[in-house]
Structure prediction request, 358 residues.
Amino acid sequence: MVDSLKKPALDEMAPGVKAPAKDTILTPRFYTTDFDAMAAMDLTVNEEELRAIIEEFRVDYNRHHFVRDAEFEQNWDKIDGETRSMFIEFLERSCTAEFSGFLLYKELSRKIKDRNPLLAEGFALMSRDEARHAGFLNKAMSDFNLSLDLGFLTKSKKYTYFEPKFIFYATYLSEKIGYWRYITIYRHLEKHPEDRIYPIFRFFENWCQDENRHGDFFDAVLRANPQFLEGLKARLWCRFFLLSVFATMYLNDLQRSGFYASIGLDAREYDKEVIEKTNETAGRVFPVILDIHHPQFYERLEVCVANNAKLTEIAQSDAPGAVKLLKKLPLYLSNAVQLVSLYFIKPIRVERNWGMAR
Prediction:
C-alpha cells in the first residue's frame, strides 16, 4: 500500500482503547474549586432569571436529540490517512472537554446541594447535558475502532484548581465559544453538504443550544455577583480569560488546519469569525472585551503560530534533549512576549447599561 494512504498509528492502552493525549498548555483540562465558597454564594440579586434558566434545563429540549441513525451504520474506512487521524483527534479533544465539564458540574452539584440547592440544581442539569455530549462523541470514536476510557481519565488526569470566580469566567467563555464554534460549522455545512464527511455534524445545531443555555446560566450567576464584574481586578481578569481562550483556540486550530480544510473551512477565517462573535457576546456581561481589530492582535498570534510550528519540528528531530531545550527556549520566550504584548493592548470598555464605549 502507498505510504500516504496508510492509516496513521495511534497510541492505544489496549485494543480499541485510545491512550489519552499528553497534557500540554493547549490540551483540555480538568478543574476543581473551593466548594465551600461556591456553596456560600448569594444568588438573590438575580434569582428570578436563574430559576427561569433552570426551568429551561428541566424541559430538556435535547433529550431525544442524541440518537444515532442509519447514516452512522457504515464502514468509515473511507475517511483515511491524515484526515482520519485529525478527525479522531477532533473527537478526542471534544470528548475530553465535554467530559471535563461533566465532572466539574457533577462534583459541584454533589458538594453544594444541601447548602445552595438552586446553584446545585443548575450544575446537576448541565452535567446531564455534558455527559450526553461526551457519550455521543465517544460512541463516534467507536466507528473508527477506538474509544476513550473515561473512568481512567477521571483518575489519571491532573486537576487544575480555580477560584469560583475563575470557574465562572472560564466556563462562561468555554460554553459561549463552544456555541459559536458549533453553529459556525453547522451553518457552513448546511450550505455545503458535500463537505460533511461524517454525520455527527448534523447534530451541531441543537447541540450548540445546550452550550448557549449553559453560557446564559453562567452569565446570570456572574450578574448575581457584581463583585466579579466591577472594579480594576475584574477588568484585568476578564481580559486575561478572554485572551487565554482566544489564543488557545487559535493556536490549537492553526496546528490542525488540515482538519478544517477537510470540511471545507479555512481555519484562520473560521477562528476569526468565532473570536469576533464570542468577543461581542462577552460584552453582554464582561466589563471589557478585547480590541481584536487592533493591527497587532492577529500579527502577534501569527508569530506564536510560527513559533509553535518550529517547536514541533524541534520536538520531532533526532537532536539530544539538551540541544532541543536550548533551541526551544527562544521560541518559548517569544511566545511569552507576544502574549504579554497582546494582554496590554488597550481593551474596549463596556458600560453597565451594556452599551459599548472606548
